[in-house]
């Protein structure tokens, strides 16, 4: 996350970017050379979290293409000049397929794409589009709505919490849907949020979780942390918790509520296929349950059976497109109308969301 990008400038830039026209038939690397694929991520790949999920998404490509691809994974790269330098070096070293695995890599990665038309760039969580540059994001909100229902079913205090990384639309929508799902079970439930402004800070994440627990929150959403710090702290306190991207159940055998897991392999594989065929077309890619990219796993058996039945019914409706968490009426936290009765937010409106729903008690950072 770039601290220079406020939510306001993000929305303006997104509106200006639009969808780029694609140029098919681009020349790619020589047929007798393996395709160099480079993944750059802001935290350790490890055994859990965002970086782990991205790296796992490349495994099916290696299985499908064997020695026709060569994969390089570079981890723990902070957003900023270092990331730009390292991404440029990966391309100079002959990698023609770059996965820029963090929101804050956007500007540098886009410049690489513009300077190198034979290189395909996938960028996580952004909004800019070019003929050889595709942002990609997950519809986490589809899963966090379901886990919000489960959280409300188990909560005794009526207070839920979230330790969240950065206040970007992708994570704001996750908190909002979590809140709406909980309110579908208990209308008066409230959600407090601590924004830690980091993708990887175990000490700060654990401190934030303990602060929420001390405020009476008895289910906590670890929103885009690459460490199990929140999950472990909740296990120690006997508090239910869930997270995004990959399962952390082994760090909370008793109180793990579930995981909004992501499988990026369908999107990564299709993008590599298109690159090799010379048909890649940059587009803003927003993938969810119906695309087999988002799935809730590791449901806690303590969730009451009748509530689990209802959750599964809603999950099926999300998958077939007959239900959206962002169908009105929805009221904003400031009391104004967020979504009119009967209206449903479009994907473009969701990816630009910069407001909280009623029930989220913590104001967004300025």
From TrEMBL:
Keywords: Lipoprotein, Plasmid, Signal
SUPFAM superfamilies in alphabetical order: Periplasmic binding protein-like I
Domain ABC transporter substrate-binding protein PnrA-like as annotated: residue spans: 37-319
A Pfam entry, by short name: Bmp
Entry keyword annotation includes Nucleotide-binding: no
GO cellular component: plasma membrane
Top-level taxon in the UniProt lineage: Bacteria
InterPro entries, per database record: ABC-Purine-Binding, Peripla_BP_I, PnrA-like, TAT_signal
Keyword Lipoprotein: yes
PANTHER family: ABC TRANSPORTER SUBSTRATE-BINDING PROTEIN
UniProt-recorded name of the protein: ABC-type basic membrane lipoprotein
Lineage of the species this protein comes from: Bacteria, Pseudomonadati, Pseudomonadota, Alphaproteobacteria, Hyphomicrobiales
